[in-house]
Each structure stands twice: as structure tokens, then as C-alpha cells.
Write a structure and sequence with these properties.
The protein has 10 helices and 8 strands. The N and C termini lie far apart (50 Å). The chain is globular, with a radius of gyration of 21 Å. Strand 1, helix 2 and strand 2 form a beta-alpha-beta unit. Strands 1, 2, 3, 6 and 7 form a 5-stranded parallel beta sheet that branches. Strands 4-5-8 form a 3-stranded parallel beta sheet, with helices on one face. With 225 residues, the protein is an alpha/beta fold.
Length: 225
């Protein structure tokens, strides 16, 4: 009888549901203001070594100066979005001026590149920006984590700020405009991967979270429902 009970208990354990694996975690790194020459080149080298894709919000006047890097960003599978042509504050522009910023930038994009997002400089997404984005079929991209790397130029502090705040589905704002920012970004990639995060583009993150990007609407992050 005892042997039979032991067998029954063993069989019951075999059919118990196995605890599911921890849900996958995703983060999108975004880089504003470039391309910037050697900083962008170093960042692209580092991302390539790590097999990571990011989203670059590019300025038209910089694409004009660095067409080779713009092409490389696109060819290596990163996402490109608009950051205006001049990097001037769009809150001070008319709808016509904002549209001209986008049209002038669009002319400098690699063939086949179709941006999904506009990130206005400084995140200034007023009514005029929203209206132009809607007409141009662009979502407006904000962010959920901002370490202010452009301001402090201190890689360890930037890393600490991101890693203490970041959560699944976040959009991290950074820049490829200084050595400290690039150093921080690559270390952040390594630390996020060590914590089980997968780094993806913003469009990939939105798709994973079944979010349809609607023209003229603002997006900060894409958490699990």
C-alpha cells in the first residue's frame, strides 16, 4: 500500500504545471541630434559588435554633412526618425515651417528609408507639431528615461541614472554627440543584456506590444498591458 501511494504521489508531481519562464524584457535605446562623425561611427561599431539595433532621430543638416553615416545607420538595420532639419525649437514655428523641416530632411534619407516617428527637438510637441505629424503620417516619439547625458558629460552618472530607472518597455533618450555619451550607451547595453533585457528599435518594441502607431499621437514607452 505504501509503495502504491508513493507511486501515485510521484505521478501527481509529474503533471503539476511547470512555472513559466520569466517574461522577456525589452528596451529601446534612442539617439538624438546626429550623425556626428567619429562619435556616431564609434557607437555604430559598438552596437554592431553587440548585435544591437537602436533608433536614431537625425537632424537634416547633419545628414547633409554625414551622408555616409546616414547610409550606414540604415544599412545596418537601425531605425531612422526625424529630429527636424535645423534642430530649432518647433514650438516657435508655424505649421508650414515644421513641414519644410521634414521635407528638407526627407530628401537626405537613404533610398527606401521610411521614418515612422518624429521627435521634435526638446520634445516640444505642440498643436502645430501634432497637426503636421498627422498629415505626414508620423507618430510623435517622446521618452520615458532621460539621463541628460548631453548636459552632465559623465559616463558613470549617466549609466547609474539609466540603470536605476529603466523598466521593461522603456524608451531611453540619449545622444551620439560625445565620447562620454557613447561610452555610457555601450556600457548600458552590456548591463541591460546582463539583466535579461533585449535591445530593439522603437518600431519593433511597439509591434511586440501590439501598439499601432497613429499619426500625430505621442508615445513615451510601450509597457506590457
Amino acid at each position: 500500500m505504501r509503495r502504491m501511494i508513493a507511486v501515485i504521489l510521484t505521478m501527481s508531481l509529474l503533471v503539476l504545471p511547470v512555472r513559466g519562464a520569466e517574461a522577456e524584457k525589452y528596451v529601446a535605446l534612442t539617439f538624438d541630434d546626429g550623425p556626428s562623425g567619429r562619435y556616431t561611427r564609434r557607437l555604430l561599431d559598438g552596437l554592431s559588435e553587440r548585435g544591437v539595433k537602436a533608433t536614431f532621430l537625425l537632424c537634416g543638416y547633419r545628414m547633409k554633412d554625414y551622408p555616409d553615416l546616414t547610409q550606414r545607420i540604415f544599412e545596418e538595420g537601425h531605425e531612422i526618425g526625424f529630429h527636424g532639419y535645423s534642430h530649432d525649437n518647433m514650438a516657435n514655428m508655424s505649421r508650414r515651417q515644421i513641414a519644410e523641416e521634414l521635407v528638407d530632411s526627407e530628401k537626405l534619407l537613404p533610398e527606401g528609408c521610411k521614418p515612422v516617428f518624429l521627435r521634435p527637438p526638446g520634445g516640444a510637441a505642440g498643436d502645430a507639431v501634432r497637426q503636421v505629424a498627422q498629415v505626414r503620417l508620423l507618430g510623435i516619439l517622446s521618452w520615458s528615461v532621460d539621463p541628460k547625458d548631453w548636459e552632465i558629460h559623465d559616463a558613470p552618472r549617466v549609466i547609474q541614472r539609466v540603470m536605476s530607472q529603466v523598466r521593461d518597455g522603456d524608451v531611453v533618450l540619449m545622444h551620439d554627440m560625445s565620447d562620454s555619451s557613447v561610452t555610457a550607451a555601450l556600457e548600458i547595453v552590456d548591463q541591460l543584456k546582463s539583466r535579461g533585457y533585449t535591445l530593439v528599435t522603437v518600431s519593433e518594441l511597439a509591434k511586440m506590444r501590439q501598439t499601432r502607431i497613429r499619426p500625430g499621437e505621442l508615445y513615451r514607452c510601450f509597457p506590457q498591458d
